[in-house]
Amino acid sequence: MQLSHRITHLLGDGDDGWGVFYRARAMKAAGRDVVELTIGEHDIRTDPVILEAMHAAARAGHTGYASIPGIPALRDAVAARVQAQSGVPTTRANVQIMPGGQAALFAAHHATGDPGDSALYVEPAYVTYPGVLRALGLVPCPVAADPEDGFQPRAADLAAAVRAAHRPRSLLINSPNNPTGGVYDAATLDGIARVVRDHDLWLISDEVYDTQVWEGAHLSPRALPGMAERTLVIGSMSKSHAMTGSRVGWVVGPEAAVARLADLATHTTYGVPGFVQEAALFALAQGDALEVQVAAPFLRRRALALDLLARQNIVRVQPPQGAMYLMLDIRATGMTGEDFALALLETHGIAVMPGESFGAAAAGHLRVAMTVADEVFVGALARLLEFAAEQAARAA
């Protein structure tokens, strides 16, 4: 039997960009020691107090079908959090609870484009972005952000891409950014907003790393003039509260769009388990202190990494302004990111993501997740830098 074009072409002409990750997991299963610096998974787990709240909610009977838009109290809490951060008036009518940020991305694009429409996104980009678009029959249109610009997208490049696209409907951005660690400044966001308004696009703003900002400040484009009515914000408990497996995220946007997203959830996910939503509500009620605690290891490891990187001149880095990753430029070795990552894995048992996984704009780079204990992280990064120096000397 023949499968649909949508499912068989989900990954385009290649794989899903996770070849090194899968190889590392296979090596670990075979008994080899591997330091995994691949995925954005905290090395700490969900705080026990949150798990206790989840357990209590389940024991109290919150195990049946929950409100599909999200339980009112959680929607109120998310609305209050978003309003406090952005300054934009927000109520529960602007909030749809989703099973994680990934489902939220899928739903947002479902709402903003029809099959055959073009959906733009800034590259380097998280690996699932183009697959989400293909799954919906949208045409993925990457717009490169240059490492020499600190991976900040240029408004002129965005406008040119919109003009070249067939039936452009949306632009997806991500700040703080995965994989680059870039945080879009006010000038960049003003340029993005201008392009979106001038070309009557939806803006989908992935802000799941909004609690991990090391330089500057997180700014939501929803707060800019004329943007609240055309912006869908993606949020999640995964990164802010180390609740990756709980699958709690949201879309914040105009009331009419959010109401339609509830219709979509009725016909797809049928909501998020009530006891999980109750735990998310409890977690948000703990305030900034818990979020700072969850983010602290990445800020600390960032400092350790930048100190190591400053002692050599082969591997270059744009100091990450946010998120839990380093984006390393290894072009001086003469190797592609993929070749370097595979060789590093085989020879040293260190797994990192090749930049090519995140699009052509990241070629010759590596994404390194700062997600293992400090001493393990420093040791692995030191070996990576030694390996890079060896390869550069060989190339010379």
Automatic annotation (TrEMBL):
Residues 33-375 form the Aminotransferase class I/classII large domain. Keywords: Aminotransferase, Pyridoxal phosphate, Transferase. InterPro entries: Aminotransferase_I/II_large, AspAT/PAT-like, NHTrfase_class1_PyrdxlP-BS, PyrdxlP-dep_Trfase, PyrdxlP-dep_Trfase_major. Its EC number is 2.6.1.-. Pfam families: Aminotran_1_2 (PF00155). Gene3D superfamilies: Type I PLP-dependent aspartate aminotransferase-like (Major domain) (3.40.640.10). The keyword Transferase applies. Its cofactor is pyridoxal 5'-phosphate. SUPFAM superfamilies: PLP-dependent transferases (SSF53383). It catalyses: L-aspartate + 2-oxoglutarate = oxaloacetate + L-glutamate. One of its GO terms (molecular function) is transaminase activity. Belongs to the class-I pyridoxal-phosphate-dependent aminotransferase family. This is Aminotransferase. The lineage of its organism: Bacteria, Pseudomonadati, Pseudomonadota, Alphaproteobacteria, Rhodobacterales.
